[in-house]
Amino acid sequence: MKEKILKIRENPFVSYFFPFFVMLLLMLLFAAWTGGRFIMPRNLTLVVNQALAVGLVATGAVVMFSTSRMSAAMGGSTAIACIIGAYAFLTTNSTAAMILGCIGGGIFIMLLAIGLSRLLRMDVMILSIIFMTLLLAVQQWLLDGGKNLSLDYAKMKELQNMNLPLTFCAVFVIVCMILLEFSPFGRKLKLIGSNETCSRQVGINTQRMLAWAFLIAGIGVGLGAAVTLMRSATVSQNTVNSMNMDVMLAVVLGGTPVRGGTNAKVFSGVWGAMTVAILTNGLSMVGIDAVWIQAIRGIFFIAVIALSEKRSDVLA
Amino acid sequence: MEKVLLTCKGICKDFGITKALKNVDFTVTRGKVCGLIGENGSGKSTLAAVISGIYPATAGMMELNGQPWKPKDMMESQRGGISIIVQEAGTIGRLTVAENIFLGQESRFRKGFLLDYKKMNAKAGELMDELGIQGISPQTRMMQLNMQERKLIEIVKAYYYAPQILIVDETTNALSHAERSILFGLIHKLADEGNAVIIISHDIEEVLEHCDTITILKDGELMTTLEQGQANPRQIKELMVGRDVEEGFYRTDMDGYSEEVVLKADNITTLREIMNFSLELHKGEILGIGGLSDCGMHTLGKALYGEEPILLGSVKVGKDDVEIKNAEAAVLSRMAYMSKDRDEESLAMNSPIYENIASTGYQKNKSRSGLISLKKEKQYVDTQVKGLKIRCYSNHQLVSALSGGNKQKVVFGKWIARDFDIIIMDCPTRGVDIGVKYEMYNLMYELKKAGKAILLIGEELPELIGMCDRILIMKQGAVSKEFLRSPDLTEKEIIDYMI
Asked: Which of A181, B107, B161, B350 has the smallest count of CB within 10 Å of its CB?
């Protein structure tokens, strides 16, 4: 019996889809708790919409996390990308310019992070903590001390009606999945996350690969920012202020270990984002106060990290 | 009558579905040095880990001095009188030598709310002097020391606890001759004082020379325990492996090699150890590099592979004289490198065997679409796992869960899987049992016959004499003597040029 359980647990297929079943379980729990209101089509559409921006940023983050580099500034980066995209739209009145502005902004910030990390020989995580404060200041400066940037709501609604957020998410996740799971590129990234010296010795140019990983994370940030603009048609100091926590929680809940490596899974971003959205929405529907929702999410985060570390120890 | 110090009865240890120990009975007597030998994965290190509190036993009981013995961890074991020098890194890189020696015992050096580092460093220096260790400052950070020096510090740490039982787990293969004498000096000192020592080693001659009893494990079961006078190397090897491996251990040919130079180092000087070093490696040649551990041979391996910055001179490979400046260029020039520091450099420990072996074949296993062909990749990995008889229940088993020798096989398999032309092997048979060594030597010879060039860096002189076409002996970063392959070449002749 014990042998069977172990074999099932170590099966790559099982470990890949386990978070998906956790997500389903959570959904059923809230369905029962709310007397079925939670799984009404309208609410499920809302949950999916809430999850899209986080899913995009988290999917990019998984690619970055796979190299064993964590950033605590994903939220700040998304906010800046939103502002750049908003200004691009306001200047040109073009939605294409807005999307490109968001992506360009995301890529620029992420490449700046990895570039500075290399130049200053500083850990990305430490640097991202500094970035968090820095980006907040830049955000304030770009918003001229806290003013709101309003976009043309009709045009944003048009993009939503074209199902662009869902399309962005589907295409980005599929591309990332092919890259990370089935191409030499992704396998090299995971090996870097597992042991950088070892990967260098098998001939991998680790610096070049890291730059590519951060570039992809930047695209995720950019697309996440574009989807946020499409949904809200406005940018303020509070835009995506819970993104940081949501992304970290999504990646971990989705089954990617915080230390990266070969266990990083692209679907973590999507399933994790869905789980976060289900958790937030479900708790809110059962009448839990917003402050308590934050606290519960925090406890969830710590518990999942502790469990995933414990699981690694047992397997080792 | 002999006084029993430790008794293990019916010890079992399971790792998931792997049964590492099956009902092992083992006794340690005061004043004795006990040898524990067996193939890779036979359960030697696991038994040592159970005794020293690293792992709890799944079943069975132990008694130390007649009292039940069930240490919760290594620290409790040390306090109770059992110390272990583990097979791989057992120290913390960012701490100093003194901090590592007194880890968990810092309160001894408390001065009010602070620690008296002066006193701690002085005590560490004193301990090192007692063991005859020179040239290491107690204030040096561990990460600045090489592998041999780190092992010496572990020996000091074990000595400090004045153990009733000292377990030495495959430590000697990481040490040079001088450092081995320090270790064996300590072992015999402890035994003479009425304590006991358990030595785990693959070096049968060493075990026969230093141990009073020799216990042989196979597949997690105790085969037999022999007294020193009863055993001979051939009999032990047969008990370990299950077949006669005495004949044909090393190659016996005098085939020679091609004149074509495939790798040329021209007057290279590195930041550490190497000074104006030149060598030529030929197609179909096994070139041995030997010397004392700090002679620069390990740095040389890295420098030739582009892993150690070269200040002066150059390393060029192939007919086109491609200059090797980094590992990426080396791999593109069909070079491979097996590092001596297995766990830190050669393996992704928390990844499966599959990912480790597959890591050298990403380009080779690509399909037409540019993506990895999982079928090709599986075959690439399976060939090595089966060929090298890596003991695992699945290719998806984590490398960290393998025994030391099986980890080494994964490293070997990873590099052999791809058809490289130049292979730098830094102590490739370290921690590998006699049966696998035999297979590895056969494989090296097959590679040589296929025209591959091998640079074999080794601390085992019989291995260099037995396998190499030429041997370069290094001393203080330069070549002190070159020996050609000869049936008359002896260790004694070589040692004169090492010291």
From this structure: B107
- Does B129 lie in the same domain as B271? no
Cβ B467 vs Cβ B449: under 8 Å: no
Of residues B219 and A199, which shows the higher confidence score? A199
pLDDT tens profile A66-87: 999 988 899 999 999 999 999 9
- Out of A3, A204, A259, name the one closest to residue B17 (CB): A3
Domain span at B424: 261-334+420-498
Instruction: Tell me, yes or no, whether B219 and B273 share the same domain.
Output: no
Q: What is the CATH number of the domain that holds A97?
A: 1.10.3470
| CB pair distance less than 8 Å for A183 and B370 | yes
In a domain, A200, yes or no: yes
* Domain range for A197: 46-315
Task: Quote the CA–CA distance of B211 and B184 in Å, as a whole number.
Answer: 11
Is there a single domain that holds both residue B207 and residue B271? no
- Cβ pair B362:A187 closer than 8 A: yes
Best A8, A13, A195 residue to mutate vs chain B (most B CBs within 10 Å):
A195
**Quick one: pLDDT at residue B92?**
86
Which domain CATH number covers B149? 3.40.50.300
Query: Is B246 within the bounds of a domain?
Result: no
CB nearest A6 (choices: B17, B355, B360) = B17
DSSP state of B228: G
Is A261 within 8 Å of chain B by CB? yes
> Which of B17, B352, B394 has the CB atom closest to A262's CB atom?
B352
* Residue where a domain terminates, one of B175, B210, B241: B241
**Does A262 contact chain B (CB < 8 Å)?**
yes
If asked whether residues B14 and B86 sit together in one domain, one would say yes
Is B337 in contact with A198 (Cβ distance < 8 A)?
no
Distance from CA of B86 to the nearest CA of A (A): 17
Count the domains in chain A: 1
Q: Is B393 inside any structural domain?
A: no
Mean per-residue pLDDT of chain B: 88
**Does residue A20 surpass a pLDDT of 80?**
yes
Set of chain B residues whose Cβ sits within 8 Å of the Cβ of A316: 350, 398, 400-401
Output the pLDDT for position A315.
Answer: 36
Residue (of B215, B235, B218) closest to B227 by Cα position: B215
Residue B267 lies in a domain: yes
Asked if residue B347 belongs to a domain, the reply is: no
| More confidently predicted of B299 and A303 | B299
Helices (H), B33-96: 44-51, 74-80
Q: Note whether B29 and B171 are same-domain residues.
A: yes
CB contact under 8 A, A316 and B328: no
Which chain B residues contact residue A259 at CB under 8 A? 350
The Cα-based distances of B349 to A76, A83, A271, B24 in angstroms read 34, 43, 27, 28
Report in angstroms the alpha-carbon separations of A66 from B181, B288, B327: 45, 39, 22
Q: Does A189 touch chain B (CB under 8 A)?
A: no
What mean pLDDT is reported for chain A? 89
Residues 6-25 of B with CB under 8 A from A: 16-17
In chain B, the number of structural domains is 2
CB contacts under 8 A, A 84-123 vs B, are none
Q: Which residue of B has its CA nearest to A1?
A: B17
* Strand pairing class (B4-15; B18-29): antiparallel
Report residue B324 as tokens. Answer: 């090797």
B47 and B103 fall within a common domain: yes
**Residue A256 and residue A271 in contact, taking contact as beta carbons nearer than 8 Å:** no
Q: Considering the domain boundaries, does residue A29 fall inside one? A: no
Q: Is the CB of A194 less than 8 angstroms away from the CB of B17?
A: no
Q: Same domain for B267 and B226?
A: no
Furthest C-alpha separation in chain A: 65
Residue A33 falls within a domain, yes or no? no
Q: How many residues does chain B have?
A: 499
Percent of chain A whose pLDDT exceeds 70:
93
Q: Distance between CA atoms of B166 and B171, rounded to whole angstroms?
A: 12
Residue B8 has pLDDT above 80, yes or no: yes
* Cα distance between residue B211 and residue A211, in whole Å: 55
